[in-house]
Design goal:
- This protein is α/β, with parallel strands linked by helices and 266 residues long.
- The chain folds into two domains: 97 residues, Rossmann fold, CATH 3.40.50.2300; 141 residues, Mannitol-specific EII, Chain A (3-Layer(aba) Sandwich), CATH 3.40.930.
- The chain is built from nine helices and nine strands.
- The strands form two sheets. It has a five-stranded mixed beta sheet with strand order 5-8-9-7-6.
- The chain is elongated, with a radius of gyration of 24 Å.
Amino acid sequence: PEEEAAYLTLHFQAAIERLRRSSETHKKAIIVCHMGIGMSQLLRTKIERKCHQIAVMACIAKADLADYTKKHEDIDLVISTIALERVTIPHIVVSPLLEPGDEKKLSAFIRQLDELHRQKQKTFQMLNNTTPFLVFLQQEAEHRYKLIEQLATALYEKGYVEKEYAVHAVMREKMAATNIGAGIAIPHANAKYIKQSAIAIATLKEPLDWGNEKVSLVFMLAVKHEDQNMTKQLFSELSYLSEQPAFVQKLTKETNVMTFLSYLDY
């Protein structure tokens, strides 16, 4: 059935997003020394062998650094064997021999860059597609079908979906449970019943049986086919959430809707 094909697509999309994030962990780096040859090539070899999260793009002389960074604005960091002045790109000085102390120093530096990147990045796109009126916290549903009907009815009453959406969402759920791991479920129905893309959210006071696992956080997805960019970003976020059990627990314990939404904007 079309709904089943769509559900498989969601899983593939989530997997693609995980792979994409994995590839993005490679930091583009340049190595700088006095002349750009000799010792810097030795350092490059050691970094490529020992620091797999770093992709060395070039070895250059200190005198060429300014020109190189103007032409290559995607460089994430500079690894230098000499002190540098007036460099705006994150940079670190290490020994050309990359001794054990340098390795630890470099690994800590990469972790710090990753953390800064996450802090800049984490405003969830789903915030743009929900409202406080579509968020229901600490629900006490008897069965997942009842909760799906409740969320679908809220979407219908706010004008986002056709009345039939609720029936088809339950039918879809009966074919296969929509849990995606980490206590999260993403019920949905055929896009032809959607007027405008939106997301209804519920948390459960007590985890609810949902297929072969317990679920505490539910995102009812009403996403139109033409909103492909939204879909891609949405599944990147769902993939991220499914790998953050502590964050999911923080969301499910919250009782204030506005505070809950604020957690998705940090």
